[in-house]
Structures are given as structure tokens and as C-alpha cells.
Design a protein that fits this description.
heterodimer, A: about 250 residues, alpha+beta, paralog of FGE (formylglycine-generating enzyme), two-stranded antiparallel sheet, 7 helices, globular, B: about 350 residues, 6-stranded mixed β-sheet, 4 helices, 22 strands, binds copper (II) ion
Amino acid sequence: MVFFTVPVTYSQTTGTVRKMQKVPAGIYYPFFSGNNEKVNSFLMDETAVTNAEYLEFVKANPAWRKSQVKRIYADANYLRYWESDLEIGKNNRALLNSPVVYVSWFAAKAYCAWKNKKLPSVAQWEYAASAKPVNLKTGLTEYILAWNAQPNPKMLPNVKSTYKNIYSIYDMHGLIWEWTSDFNSYTGSVDSKGNGQEEFNNFCGAGGANVKNKKDYASFLRYSYRGSLKGNYCIANLGFRCIKNL
Amino acid sequence: MFTKNNFFLLALLLSFSFYSCKSNTGQSTADNKIDTVLTGTVTAELTVAPEVPKPLTYTSPKRVKVELTCVEKVMELSDSTQYTFWTFGGHVPGQFIRVRQGDLVDFTLKNAPDSKNSHSIDLHAVIGPGGGAEATNTAPGQATHFEFRALHPGLYVYHCATAPVPLHIANGMYGLILVEPQGGMPKVDREYYLMQGEFYTKNKFEAKGLQEFDEEKAMAENPDYVLFNGRVRSATGAKALPAKVGETVRLYVGNGGPNLISSFHPIGQIFTKVYMEGGSEINTDVQTTLVPAGGAAIAEMKMHVPEVINLVDHSIFRAFNKGAIAQIKVTGEENPAIFRKVKQ
Ligand SMILES: [Cu+2]
């Protein structure tokens, strides 16, 4: 995948301020074998970006409205559950405080830039998402697998409806999947990586001799999911949150 | 994947190793000359088990369009027991695909928009990277596409190959594809599709309500359910597969696993013919045939007397306690020369 900049001029207004939480520096242990990565301390949105917040973004940035967006930046499913450019619609009013979904990687990246923020890298996202829950009864892996086994709900619940971790960040698992800046660099396709090693890890021998923990089915599902994405895909349960490097 | 020119070359190469012999030679029928010049496009008939698509009537290679959709949905594992199945086409096993040796299969894999996970497909009938898996890691709401040439005749398993593969298979992502030899399959009276697979749940066999997958039991290869066609009593009682005295019945039997090998046996019958492991070698007069995990067999029987034939995995606790029974109900005239109950 080629990452190129999206030609949008941003409005000066940046809307509601989403509270951010500090993620302390640490080490990210990649799921597929590789060198451990040092992660510097950064700030992360405490929740995923909501429909209400995203509405402010499209109001300020006409190029990202449903009727205006270019197909190379967002496929035909972009914001498909919104009634119109600037309306979520009567039936979906309950979703104002739920994560925005059916948004592309390009759109997510543009939103974060508008907020003077960025999308988290896989390393940053995974590192923050591995933090211990403070209010879950089951183990985290068990919790994620149970979520994976449920069909998508008709109405996506509000943000802060699942669990909070020790950094006071909400819903890292159990609500939606989230975009990362380099979503396909760990399970990259043969095309983008020029070799098949990651594919081997992913597909052969029922999921790879080289992974950190072969029993971590929840991570397998997440990395496979990321590996299936393209930048303009807009999907039912895929949203995002932003970060700021310190 | 293949260009026209490549195919002239392939046909040429294969023609050098032409043999007219039939079987017992250790010679694959794919080494025979395969006609590869396409003569039109057809859309494959896909069926839900126990139905099998009609025998193919065309006699030269076609471009065959096949489209499967990955669907995650809650269905019954038993009468009062539900499970979130991951499926090809909304059923376990997935839809049966029937093509002919030499066909170019134009394959589209869709993933339903409301799926939570990405899915892919590895068809064991494919010669190519991952059996199609590398070309088909498909996000929810998206589609992927590839082409393959059906070189070898036989009955092949297909399954999801997205990591973690064992979980996708354990949740029901498998099915069968039949590649008919160039001369077609011999005609029989009835054909049925049965596929064995195990399920691993947190609770015991037939516990009520929605069940969760149990990773520990799956790794210990200790299933709660061993089933034909994805449900307890999928083909028994009122849903037994019908047949009549005098008919020949052909079973296309697959085993999705994920772990167990099936000792497939018809109680009160003998297989007249078994295409062992779904390949070209035929065994005759078989009581029990092995169906490997990720493998298949084609088994035929001649119906001689009215009876209910219990088709079981003869690892017999699986049949008695874990659900591994399907039935053929044979109706028609008694034949005392073959079987009669003698009153004392
Ligand atoms: Cu799958």
C-alpha cells in the first residue's frame, strides 16, 4: 500500500475537545516474531471518535461529506447509515454518542489531522490495548473472543459502554475494530512486502510457527482482520481514535 | 492467473505424458491429456447439504463462475442449543460446488457486510498459493477474486484459511468441491452430501442456549459434538435421506475436522464402491472407510431391502454420545432372499 497525503484544506474550527489519556512509555512485543519495539509515551483519545464528533468534521470539511468524497478515498459504503451529508437521521439519533463506523483509513487520517492529531501505529494501538482492564470480570482474551463470536448488534452501543483500562482509556476491545496508521505493515500482502513470510505466518500451518503465542486467538483475529483491509474500505464495525505524540 | 498462451503450453506439456491406462498404475489422471480450451461460461449450481448439484451435462471445459459468501450467524447446534457459526453460504457445511476436470473456475469470495471477522478460502482442488487463501483474505462487506484450473478429478474439501485457522474451521467454515473426471461420474439413482465436523463448547453436549467455543477442549481434541452436516439429528428421523429398494445411492462424504478422522460406516449395509480419500482409486466391498480430517471419500451402496441405514463414525462413542449419526431410510419391497427375520 502506498501512503499518500490527502489533498484537503482543513477548516480552522476543530469542534468538541475529546479528552486524551497518557500512555506511558514501554515495549511493544510484535505478535509475529520480530524485534521488540520501544514505544514512547503518547496521548490517546479516551474513546473512539463518535458520530457527533465526526458530524462536526464533515460540517467543517465539505470534501468529506457523503456526496462529495472521492471513491479512491472512501468506497461506496462510506457513512452508509447516515441519512444525508449532515444528518445521521431520526432512527439513528441514538448513535450520536456511538463510534462512527463505515469510515475509511483516509477519512480517519484526515479527521485526526483536523484535530492536530494522528492515527496510532499498530505498535501504539496494540501496546495501549494490551493494558489491564480495571472493570472486567473475565480475562481480556476471553472477553475479546466472546465479542468476536457475537454477530454485530443492530445498534452500535455508545462509547464507554464496555470497559476501561489502567490508563483510563475505554473500549479498546469489545466495541469496534479500529484503524491504525500502518494497518497492513505487520500482515502485509505479498504484493506490498515483496516476500511471502507474513503470509506464511498468517495462513500456513494453521497460523504460523513464528507467532509469539499460538494460543492468542484474539490477536490472530485482529491481525488477520487488519491484513484484509485497504485504505478506502468502509466497514460496519470499523472506526478509529486518534493519538498525539509527546 | 493463466493466460491463453500459458494454456497452450500446459496442454502441450501434459500431452507428452499421455497415458491411456485407467487405474492401478500409480498414474494421476491429471497426467493424461487435459483439454483446456474453454468453450463458454457457466455459473455453478451450488447446493446446501444434503443436496448435491445435478451431474454436469457439458463435455468440454468451461469458465465456471462460483460465488460463495462468508456469513457469521447464530443457528441451532441441536434442538435447544445454539452456536454462532461461521459459514460459507449461511450453512454448515458450506455449499457443494461441482465442476469438471479442465474447467477454469472463476471464483469470487464475498464476506457479508455484517460479519465481524475477515475470512478466506483454501480449496484443496486448487494448485496455487494457499489453495486460494492468499488471494482471498476478505474484509467484511468486501469481495476477492481469483481463477484456478481444475486439473485433478476428485472430491476435495475447502475451508477458511484465515488465522487462527483452527477457530474458523471449528466454527463451521468448510465444505466440498467435486471435480468430475473428463468422462463424468457414472450415473447413479441418488446422490447426497454429508460432511462431518466437531464442535467444542464450554458446556456439555446439548446444554441449552447459546454456546461458546472452548479453546482448551479444541486443543485437547476433545469435542462435545461430532456431527454430520453441522447439527445434531440433521439427517435422521423425518429428515432421514430417502432411497428406494433397487436404487444405487452415492454419498459425497467430507470431513472438516478440525481434529478427528472419521471411520465412516453404514450400519446394515456395505459400500459397493469407495473412491478412497475422494481420489481416483476405487475399492469395492467396504465395511468402513476412513475419511481424514481435511479429506473426503465417495461411497456407493446398492439398496437391497427396506431398512433404516445408520451412517456413523464407528469410533462409536461419537455416534452414541456426540451426535455422529445420519440416516438413509430405504422403502420398498422386502427381499427375504437377502434378509428375513425368522420367528421362533
Ligand atoms: Cu473464516
